[in-house]
Design brief:
3-stranded mixed β-sheet; alpha+beta; 6 helices; 10 strands; single chain
């Protein structure tokens, strides 16, 4: 069995001490499965840790698979920053709008942002990228950007990922994957869109900024 005391994705205590709005560009050194804050490690198969790095995030949702070439972008927005919103949905929506504008600017056709409550199938909540949550971005009816957030008195940490490949690692990693999960994980990817990741990241920073930009390598 995998220990429930998993290493956290970030040093969240350190994050809370950051006083300036910061945009993080993050790359894992290998495929990393990240559990939601409330997920028991028992959702993963006993041998998952021998095949993938495993971490836990502070934020809701299910398991997400992060790959070295994914466009993984997080924002720390201190409470004093004008881009900080007390409303959870409003915070997610503004991040989704940044992605929408950036994707459209790089040639993605008609990206849309999900507004309103979560729409999902309870059977598939074990995994991210199977439903539609506030601020998440879709192209051609398929999700292309997932959003989660962690809120504390000092500010809000919004985490987003635009995957470069599919998420079927999750199906293989689960102890008991529900029937149909592989189909539910049929999301869009950067490769599908034909968008250059570097150009997209640069445009995203311009559309959402200004920020202190930090590039992090997750040594997984």
């Amino acid at each position: 069995m995998i220990d429930d005391e998993l290493e956290e994705l970030y040093d969240y205590d350190e994050l809370r001490r950051i006083d300036e709005p910061t945009m993080f560009e993050v790359s894992p050194t290998r495929t990393t499965l990240v559990l939601g804050s409330a997920q028991p490690s028992g959702v993963l198969s006993p041998d998952a840790a021998s095949r993938w790095a495993i971490r836990r995030r502070r934020g809701g949702g299910g398991v997400v698979a992060l790959h070295p070439d994914d466009l993984w972008v997080d924002w720390w927005i201190p409470v004093h920053d004008p881009r900080h919103y007390d409303d959870v949905r409003a915070a997610a929506d503004i991040v989704g709008r940044w992605w929408q504008v950036a994707l459209r600017g790089e040639g993605a056709i008609d990206p849309s942002v999900h507004v309103g409550a979560v729409i999902d199938d309870p059977r598939f909540r074990v995994a991210c990228f199977t439903g539609a949550g506030p601020g998440e971005v879709f192209v051609g009816g398929r999700k292309v950007v997932g959003v989660t957030q962690w809120r504390v008195r000092e500010g809000t940490f919004l985490s987003t990922v635009c995957p470069v490949q599919d998420s079927r690692d999750i199906v293989a990693a689960l102890a008991a994957p529900p029937d149909g999960l592989d189909h539910a994980l049929d999301h869009a990817t950067l490769a599908d869109l034909g968008v250059d990741p570097g150009a997209l990241l640069a445009r995203l920073e311009v559309e959402s900024g200004p920020w202190r930009h930090r590039r992090l390598i997750l040594d997984a």
